């Protein structure tokens, strides 16, 4: 994984319209799924009951929450992009979020993305839109596809 490092927002603006390098693989463990369940209070058995999932789920394994893959976007993008002059970043929102494929426990995920727009925001910031696809190692369909929007301020 090659992290893209920029000195400032002006230099970062050259990224608009360009694909990002593929991200590093992240293994989704049962502990991560359980922690996400605790944080969101979503304890549906398909996520947290390993034995019941083995017996009754069509996947035969626990499945991560769909929103878990979305929540990883901030970290995954942060691992790929750095703007040294940025003092603060804020998640602004998401567009067109879809979950085309289930994420089974012990799956490996990585980000494939593209910076689709960089717009001036306030006096010292930009609004950045990225098209994100969270790939599952060995799967035909991604775990999650979304437009991720964040704000960066110098």
Q: Give the fraction of residues assigned to helices.
A: 25-40%
Global morphology: elongated
User: Rounded to an integer, what's the Rg over CA atoms?
Assistant: 17 Å
Please report the total strand number as a whole number.
7
Order of helices and strands: EHEHHHHHEEEEE
Major β-sheet, in short?
Answer: 5 strands, antiparallel
In terms of structural class, how would the helical and strand content be classed?
A: alpha+beta
The stretches of 5 or more residues where confidence is low (pLDDT under 50) are none
The portion of residues forming beta strands comes to 35-45%
Give the quaternary arrangement of the chains.
single chain
With strands numbered from the N-terminus, the spatial order across the biggest sheet is 2-5-6-7-4
Brief overview, please?
The protein is of the alpha+beta class and 154 residues long. 26% of the residues lie in helices and 36% in strands.
